[in-house]
Design goal:
single chain; 487 residues; alpha+beta; 434 Repressor (Amino-terminal Domain); 6-stranded mixed β-sheet; 3-stranded mixed β-sheet; 13% strand; transcription regulation; DNA-binding transcription factor activity; ScfR_C
């Protein structure tokens, strides 16, 4: 048996039994000073003493197992490092402090976990209530939204279309004589000629694994050097150069748009500027008029659009979700990027489709099936609980960011639109658009979905709507349970 220091647990056990150190030492046939050293973690708990404790006090030796402490440490690291309690901390808590807390004051550690769980449950109920009322979370909770929520809602309120930047990018595309699919050379020339910025592909400063360990680009304003990772593909290089040009040539326009949103915090304003610069970059690489005309001509075939404009699948999908110019609208898409764990790292909507903010998304959504079929485009007719039906396109994309042994990133990209727009898409070919039985019933997520008979339901919705009947094997609507009890 390795040296095990379990002093606080032994002290708590002694206090629970109402024993003094002298009384317990007499029972265990050891000296009071030896027992005091064990309780102070100055001496390890030996096998002989542990067996005497088990026999004399009638406790399971597993009470002194390292497993419980290890689990407590892992849970506390998660809560204090990224949970709801972490936002209230003025300084980070080290692993050493967490270990001491778990070993010396485990009851307080468990109390922190319980507090975090109640905070998350309260946040989920607020989110669910806000979703049902159609209100902003901050309006329901009485608290200001997080900075990233402010920025997300800003783009959502504009239907993911920023006309000022789209128009400016299109004018500059023509003024700089750029060509679709070949913009990288023109952007590099513009940076050099007008701004004296030299573009280099250099992996110094990006880490051994490329930009996996650092930013996508590094701009040195003093040396006038824009460093791009050598792992970037041509379309990605063009996007990064366009983003830098956004700050250099469209900075005033970006600031004006951001100022009009009246963000509550400086952090939100900074995030908005980055988002708007990225928007400008996408509009410059994929100019509105040319891109929309090509999309309509090719019936929104994503792969063919990518080849024509020299960009990847994700970039095309992202741009398709922004084509909402009042006098030249494209199909109003909603766009998502998720990982295998169900985390949504990107979501954009040009329409009124609501993504769940509570407890993940629907496992019946074809976006998750895409991981099992990498490289294939999957289609799905999906019916939401409100009766609306959508056409979803999903594909898994992977990014290799380094050499041997470096894990690659995999995401599922989802692009959806209302069923009435489906005939405009090449992906509707062969689908039974008029068959009411063809769509797959899905929801925004179990915690806000009210489908009582879904085979994939994980738990009842937050705030009620379903109950658990002890005589049945699945969730039932509250109303049905009440009627059954009345009968």
């Amino acid at each position: 048996m390795k040296k095990t220091f379990m002093g606080p647990r032994l002290r708590r056990l002694r206090e629970e039994r109402g024993l003094t150190q002298v009384a317990l030492a007499r029972t265990l046939e050891i000296s009071p000073s030896y027992l005091n050293q064990i309780e102070q973690n100055q001496r390890p708990l030996t096998v002989q003493v542990l067996l005497k404790i088990s026999t004399a006090l009638g406790v399971d030796v597993q009470r002194f197992s390292d497993d419980d402490e290890a689990r407590l440490i892992a849970d506390l690291r998660e809560v204090l490092g990224g949970g709801s309690l972490s936002a209230t901390l003025d300084e980070p808590i080290s692993l050493g402090d967490i270990r001491e807390l778990a070993a010396g004051l485990p009851a307080i550690g468990r109390a922190l976990l319980a507090l975090d769980r109640r905070c998350r449950e309260a946040e989920e109920r607020v989110d669910a209530l806000a979703l049902r009322l159609g209100e902003d979370r901050g309006m329901v909770a009485g608290a200001p939204p997080m900075p990233y929520e402010e920025v997300r809602d800003f783009f959502y309120a504009r239907h993911n279309h920023v006309a000022e930047l789209d128009d400016l990018a299109e004018r500059l595309f023509d003024a700089w004589s750029l060509q679709p699919g070949e913009v990288a050379a023109g952007l590099a020339a513009r940076l050099a000629r007008v701004h004296g910025v030299r573009v280099v592909r250099d992996d110094s400063g990006f880490g051994e694994a490329g930009f996996e360990d650092g930013p996508l680009r590094v701009f040195d304003p003093a040396g006038r050097v824009l460093s791009l990772s050598p792992l970037l593909e041509p379309g990605q290089q063009a996007f990064q150069m366009a983003t830098q040009l956004a700050f250099l040539e469209a900075g005033e326009d970006i600031d004006r748009v951001a100022a009009g949103a009246a963000f509550r915090s400086e952090e939100a304003r900074v995030l908005a500027r980055i988002g708007l610069a990225n928007y400008f970059a996408g509009a410059l690489v994929l100019p509105y008029g040319r891109f929309l005309a090509a999309a309509e001509q090719l019936r929104y075939d994503i792969d063919r659009l990518g080849r024509r404009f020299g960009v990847g699948f994700e970039t095309v999908c992202h741009r398709l979700s922004t084509l909402q110019r009042p006098d030249a609208r494209g199909v109003p898409f909603f766009f998502v990027r998720v990982d295998r764990a169900g985390n949504i790292s990107k979501r954009q909507s040009a329409t009124d489709f609501h993504f769940s903010r509570v407890g993940g998304t629907c496992p019946l959504w074809n976006v998750y099936e895409a991981f099992a079929r990498p490289g294939h485009i999957l289609t799905q007719l999906a019916a939401m609980p409100d009766g609306r039906t959508y056409l979803w396109i999903a594909r898994c994309v992977s990014h290799s960011r380094g050499g041997y042994g470096v894990p690659e990133k995999s995401f599922a990209i989802g692009l959806g639109c209302d069923l009435r727009h489906a005939p405009r898409l090449v992906y509707a070919k062969g689908l039974k658009l008029d068959d009411p039985e063809a769509p797959t019933p899905i929801g925004a997520g179990c915690k806000v979905c009210e489908r009582p008979s879904c085979p994939q339901r994980a738990f009842p919705p937050v705030g009620g709507g379903l109950a658990i009947d002890e005589n049945r094997s699945r969730f039932e609507p509250y109303a049905a349970v009440v009627r059954g009890a009345a009968r």
